[in-house]
Amino acid sequence: MTKKEETKDEEMLDPETVEEPVEAGEVAADEVMNVLLAQVESLEAESAKNLDGWQRAQAEFVNYRKRMEREQARIYEDATVRVVRQFLPLLDDLNRALQDKPKNGDAADWSAGIELVYRKMLTILEIEGVTRMDVEGEQFDPNFHEAIGMEDSPDHESGQIIEVIQQGYMIGDRVLRAALVRVAG
To answer: CB under 8 Å, gap of 24 or more: what pairs does 107-113 form?
Structure first.
């Protein structure tokens, strides 16, 4: 081998001077990588879309559940109102009977039993959220009171409730029955 040929062989072996030929496999690998990256981006977008849909569905379900709970509470309250309204006249009758209760004798024992029944009914109503309106001396409010009469009273200012004729009841902030009252004129 001549010196010239040796130099040429050495140059060919020098990694800095040797240019590697581009093979068909390398071009295909770049294309495959680009295709895979595009698929990854597409799958990430689809995943984000599915996550958003799932989150919306979950929020709609939570709202539905809350709406159903409110609806059930309203239905329960409406049923309670219907039943309690039927018992209010009975409660009024017991109250009237106790206003003139006898103090002595067998009738006093009987009236004590009636008073016990009356207090039990009030307790049951209280458990159900029913409260009596304590309105005597307050200003008349047509949302809570029903005036059956007006009279002059030097002890009361105009529009003030003088006497409660029939007790009013509420359940929560809802009026079951307005109080029947006499108002100062």
So the answer is: none
Give the pLDDT mean for 150-161. Answer: 88
Q: Any idea what DSSP says for residue 158?
A: T
SS3 state at 8: helix
Residues 6+ apart with CB under 8 A from 132: 122, 167, 168, 169
Digit-coded pLDDT (tens) for 11-31:
555 555 545 544 555 678 888
Measured at the alpha carbon of residue 165, what is the angle toward residues 161 and 170, in degrees to the nearest 5?
A: 80
151 SS3 class: strand
Sequence-distant (6+) residues with CB within 8 A of 176 are 81, 84, 85, 88, 130, 168, 169, 170
The topology under which CATH files domain 131-185 is Nucleotide Exchange Factor Grpe; Chain A, domain 2 (2.30.22)
- CA dist 45 and 132 (Å) reads 62
Give the number of other CB atoms < 10 A from CB of residue 140: 20
80, 129 in Cβ contact below 8 A?
yes
Does this model's pTM top 0.70? My answer is no
Interacting residues of 143 by C-beta distance below 8 A, sequence separation 6+: 175
Only one residue has tokens 């006093």, namely 108
Q: Which residue has 């009636």 as its token pair?
A: 114
